[in-house]
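Subject: for your reference before the review

Hello V.,

The reviewers asked for a structural picture of the protein, and I figured it would be easier to keep everything in one thread rather than splitting it across files. Below is the amino acid sequence we used in the manuscript, unchanged from the supplementary table.
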Amino acid sequence: MRREQLEYAAARYGTPLYIFDMDILNSQIDRLRKILGEETGLCYAMKANPFLTREMADRADRIEVCSMGEFEICRKLEIPPEKLFISGVMKKKEDIFRILDTYGERCRYTVESVKQMHYFLEWSDAHMKEIRLYPRLTNGSQFGMDEDTVRSMFGIVNMSPYLKIEGIHFFSGTQKRHVRQFRQELEMLDRFLLKMRNEWKVEVAQLEYGPGTAVPYFRGKEAQTYTDEGLESLGEAVRSMAWKGHITIELGRAIAAECGYYLTEIKDVKKNGDIQYCIVDGGNHHMNYDGQIRGMYEPRIQIIPGDSGVRKKRWTVCGALCTMNDVLCSNVELPDVRTGRVLVFERTGAYSAMEGMSLFLSHSLPAVVSYGRESGWRLLREHMPTYMWNMPDDSLNKAD
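And here is what came back from the structure prediction:
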């Protein structure tokens, strides 16, 4: 995004502010489609950035939904249920039934446990409708089920003519930086799927795979898996599998990270000892970079409308929270730091805007806007106070 566009947005909408550039998002989707091949499906995990859900429903093959809140977003946005991949480690019976009563067999559903499978069995038998299921294979964490339990799923499915195991779901983590991790996991999944076919005598047509591609948030911390060469290696590993079903890739933060900007205004500057501080009106309650610890690493950052020709000085950027942990970056070189200038943090389109502790100190939520060459500027959310969520709601105790 051009500097004049960032300056315009800061002046028009104020700070703190999130900007999501739809042109960058679409360019990334085109890049991924070209490298991975049209035969490989793309799934968008909306937890990375729910503000992009409508656009991604048009561009991705599936939208991963991991909570009832996310389901309600999709329902209100009228996302086609055929696009929805209903996931999440914890699915309550009433939530599963609510989704099934709403969309039934039109969605796809992951299965995280035997208990969840029983819920699907109960509903499908009662309504005599087929449900497409994806048992999740664990990576050794709390997510999914081990191989023996997955095998038992097929016995449960045989109890009902309405349950169908369409595929297997596997996601093992995030921020993988080396392509060998992709190859190792896909080789493991290939052996597992062939074992299902040859030894268990069951066949599935689909694999939903989350490789956990890393995004290089910090200068000097590149990620092999995020490059064209790294993604080509992922595509080659997929195509080399002896199992030849359809694979859908859920790339997590790699789809949306680059489209996001976080803008926060410098409100104060001072020097304590040998350290120069600038205090901004945002903070780490609004923005989180995975792997960042008290500003140890340098994110991609620019200052507007600062003069790049001015000699740079080293600054530590801190937010508005009353905690020493609210350090956005330390000892970074910035030109022309003054109150009223705006710092622009880049690559905040995925998770960064969603993982902050937004209710801490009852600060207002930042405004959210999007921009595209065709759509122009769109206000997605105004600055929103949060104090009412941090106090008793007296109306709950009033008599009807």
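For the response letter, the relevant points are probably these. The first helix runs from residue 3 to 13. The mean pLDDT is 93.

Happy to draft the paragraph if you're swamped.

O.
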